[in-house]
């Protein structure tokens, strides 16, 4: 018997949710990510619960018990019950009635085997009762998780046609759980359905790419994406080659992974638009990639960009060139970020006015930066 354990299973607030549902004669199980992550000895972040109770019944039962119930996705069978300040996503068992590759029409089901059959990967089709005893309806989920195999539930092509985003989800799970490497059958099915990627919204693509690039080391998965044609479909013109050197540099220097920095390493045409990035992320992407390609000196990068962006640019530059980034370069960028230009516009107003004043100040600032910040105020005031 396989069992998941942990404080999250035994938490009184979570057990109270089971009490509410099962006390009314319905059944409930932990499902999906929480079971998978617990079995993989990874932190459990979100608690999802499956039940044979309808969402309306779940809402009514929770409210009668004094628990907050939010209809977060009630049209699709999901209600969020807040118990002990912990959100629990409670979803009625479902089966697909109709799919078009982007969204599904579902009907409620009564057995977990039906619910499991519509899930994407075997390791996500895992359930556990309130005591933590694991139920594996496909008979393959626990084994695949332990072996590092990312397998679609049933026929891979069928699962992909139900939702083409599962192509990107495959590579995200490959990066985090796929220690055995990609499955030939899965890659063949993905290759046969590349056109489906074009039907997905920029928001959905951006969300999946972000989660993929947040993995500790997404480089092998992204390289496989490139090999089968997925990367070019998502980001035309992207190059997966610089990603592995970037990840190695991050690890060598003890720098925290950053998905925008990693996206900048990939490049691609109109990446910000194709992935619908926020204005902040889009601007950052443009700045750090531009600075890396220009190859600004560490001190200058620190001064003009700030320490964090200069670090990004230096790491990217190293990845593009396949070269290490010395600690001295990082220190120089830090000093540049702390440097303060010794002149102000008022210092030149006796000789320059209007646009000429701005040009004169800018020219002196450039000289000061080029000198490595060694020119003092007196030297800068001399023509």
In short:
With about 375 residues, the chain is of the alpha+beta class.
What descriptors fit this protein?
7-stranded mixed sheet, 383 residues, Hydrophobic Seed Protein, 21 helices, Beta Polymerase, domain 2
Topology (elements, then pairings):
Elements: H1 7-10, H2 12-22, E1 28-31, H3 33-39, E2 47-51, H4 55-64, E3 68-73, E4 78-83, E5 86-92, E6 94-99, E7 104-108, H5 112-117, E8 127-128, E9 134-135, H6 141-147, H7 156-162, H8 166-177, H9 184-192, H10 202-213, H11 219-228, H12 230-234, H13 243-253, H14 259-266, H15 271-274, H16 279-294, H17 298-305, H18 307-321, H19 327-338, H20 355-370, H21 377-381
Based on CA inertia axes, which overall geometry fits?
elongated
Within the largest sheet, what's the order of strands? 3-4-5-2-1-8-9
Number of helices: 21
**What is the level 1 CATH name of the largest domain?**
Alpha Beta
Q: How many DSSP-defined strands?
A: 9
Report helical residue fraction: 40-55%
Helix and strand pattern? HHEHEHEEEEEHEEHHHHHHHHHHHHHHHH
The named CATH superfamily of the largest domain: Beta Polymerase, domain 2
Ends apart, CA distance between termini: 84 Å
The appropriate CATH architecture of the largest domain is 2-Layer Sandwich
**What's the rounded overall pLDDT mean?**
93
Structural class: alpha+beta
Low-confidence segments: none
